[in-house]
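As agreed, record passed on underneath.
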Amino acid sequence: MTGGERVSAGEAEGDVVRLWKRDVVGLLGCLVVGGAVLVFAIGGTRWFSRHIAPVVYDLPGGSWTVGAGLGLLSLVGWAGLLADRFGDAVGTSGASRAADVVARVGCGAAAVAPIVFLVSGLQGRNCRSYESGCAYISGTGPAVLVYVAVTGGLGWLFYRRRRAVLDERRARERDRLRKLRKKGKGKSRRAAAGR
């Protein structure tokens, strides 16, 4: 190994160490910032829900409409999280990957936020019901029931429809392969080599 090759190997090791340190710092930064955002988001959502829920439940349609709307919002969020268009972002630009991450975070928030909103209206644990931050907000019970009915019913229908589409697609693929085998074009290499 010549002197120039030793220097380039040392530089390559230095680059790897710098990249590793940068990744560790980035991961720790994400954990700290993400944890702080999560704590403040949960606390802020609870405060927001306890102040907004009584107003929203008194609107025409009341808690039934709110529960149905939140159920639909949650289903849309889950459908967005499970969509096939959010594939792995290999070979895409940084802006495209960032847009995918933002879309996933938005869908996750849409899926979870209604649950946090509804649970915030229930009576708090380990506190007295007459305290303002713990009291049951009237209308939360029916909203939770409608939410469960909407997400359960429509989620089941969506699952059944998606399952039927996948089964039909598999059946068409099996038929296509069976027709190819009849023509002698669909045999595997091992079967063709054994002839």
Observations:
- The CA atoms of residues 24 and 30 lie 10 Å apart.
- The mean pLDDT is 77.
